[in-house]
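Continuing from the previous page of notes. For each protein in this section, the sequence appears first, followed by its structure tokens. Read the first protein now.
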Amino acid sequence: MSSGGDYHRLLHKSKSHIGQTNDFSPNQVRPLPTGPRKKSTGIQAWMLMNKKGEAQVVEAGKYAIMRRTGLLARDLRVLDPILSYPSTIMGREKAIVINLEHIKAIITGLEVLLLNSRDPTVMPFIEELQNRIQRFHHATIAQKGDVDGLNFSKEFSMLEDQDESLKVEEKTDVKNQDGSKVLPFEFVALEACLETVCNCLESEAITLEQEAYPTLDKLTSVLSTLNLERVRQIKSRLIEISGRVQKVKDELEHLLDDDEDMAQMYLTEKLVYSSNMNEGDDMDDESSQSNFDDRCSILSDDEGQNLENPHGNHTSSTQSYMNKNLDVKELEMLLEPYFVQIDGTLNKLSTIC
């Protein structure tokens, strides 16, 4: 699979139904500084995918991402490939941080931010994620009477409108065509991450199993240097894959054992609660993010700007609300099948040993 061709094909797919290019116009993103950049800014290419499955790629520094997602610097370090952090699924006030195998993403209640989007191993995941989010969008607009085909730049035209749509979701459970409940946006994206990682690890385990048994049979028949070397290589791969599978299993097990950690991941509920608290207030900070153009332009602002969370006044009350409402059955039911799958993969590898 050609990474360059597939990458542009995927972006073309996301724009084909809205009739515009994926390049930001000058009024959408402020031009990046032409002078020398500070090493500390850590400018990286991020793919942004909104709640309609439309994707754009922008260059953004660490502080811009912190402002956009409400994350701290230590949270972003989890995604740094140089630091080799273990598998992580981490809920925060406004975002979920995912570091699983080749998938390094930040999920908010409004969008997914993805690193390494040009990596060929990530391309199938992006396509799967886009398909899932588009199905989510079609299911929600079918019941909310939203207008399909809105311009990408108008997706977050008014933050108040977004909050109003969240109130509708709170009052009415959105259903799929088969009658099943539509998961919140953040869980749709989270499930895409988990399914991709678990399936990839299971596929590697099956491939290794198919190679291991014939090689062992040859060794029992003919003891030779060549056969011994093949067994040694398989053993090395077995140890490496088992370690990766164990890390993913441990992270899922830790998450399932902690209701508070799972409650942190209900981002849509927190947005609904926060928007209800803000109703009737003069929200000057909201007007600074009144449309998607402004949200995109934030990504190229000066890195030295004030990093305060504009919604910090309600952080403690939102946290208190979530701690008192620890009904996490929906997320628990989502996580358990993937825990069972990854545990089965680990058992398969143990059998090879």
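Done with the first. The second protein uses the same format. Note its length before scrolling.
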Amino acid sequence: MVTVNLGMLHYVLDHIYGAFMHRTKMSTPFFSRGWGGTKLEMLERMIKQLFPEVAGQNWPPTLVHPVWRTVWETKTASLREGVFRTPCEEQLLGALPPESHTARVAFLMPKCVPPHRMACVVHLAGTGDHTFERRLRLGGPLVKENIATMVLESPFYGQRRPMLQRGAKLLCVSDLLLLGRATIEEARSLLHWLDSEAGFGKMGVCGLSMGGVHAAMVGSLHPSPVATLPFLSPHSAVVAFCEGILKHGTAWEALREDLAAQKVAMTLEEVRERMRNVLSLTDVTRFPIPKNPNAVIFVAATDDGYIPKDSVLELQKAWPGSEVRWVTGGHVSSFILHSDHFRRAIMDGLDRLPWKESPL
């Protein structure tokens, strides 16, 4: 009788999927056009400025004013799509491709309940998630729990993707930092809009994989408590691009040649170390502890071929009071099979927040 180790099977499936997506020559690798030159230097400075000098202080979000159109409406719910100009400051806006200047968002909202008795969660995109549909499917069943879903289209993705970019394969290292910084600004502004303009009683932010890293950053830097729900997420992009499967889909030789063109000679191992240093800026354990760490729930997979267990546990250790929940599976299989666990975490995270006072 042959015994199948399901954990190993999930892990192997992740590597098979990763090999097909990132190790074949069927697709362009990440960062095929190098580091990004002066954009990267500017972003390194700006990201270091993210961290408040005094614990507990964060810069206020910029209020945005989405322009909405109704996609469909029933007796119990409505779906709207909105657009707004990204709230990024001018220096950051100048570094973004023109296609990414206008942000797009989908908003699935229950009806028949006043906003101050509802919650809303902003869903951020994982790597390669170019559309609203996948995240709307995750949030859809929560409508009956009076939880609205707001889905942000990431810069560099979907209709915001630069003309020369193939799929999710960012052209420069600077694009990864730009994507993250702009996503943080836009998500914080949407949470501010939900609070001050729409009048929701509770807010949260969640995301899968890369989206979970960004969700953790947003929850950390937002000035008021929000439920923070990173799913299948590492503590840093270093894990994905320097240690995990995505290292096989990175254009290391192009990065080395880009440095050589700047009269900087490096071996491939030194190039990898430089990448590690640059991406250490995305280490969430360096970010402030969220205002309500009890409303932080990480959901991780037991046999994730992309995200090692110790990466998740580093986050929990850095944010005392947060919770880690484990689902059985790998990165890909958990994403497909465990939506109910993600929804349960969303509901539980929101339950750990107090309701805002009702408007008079």
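What the second structure shows: The longest helix spans residues 173-196. Residues 116 and 200 are 5 Å apart (CA to CA). We return to this in next week's lecture.
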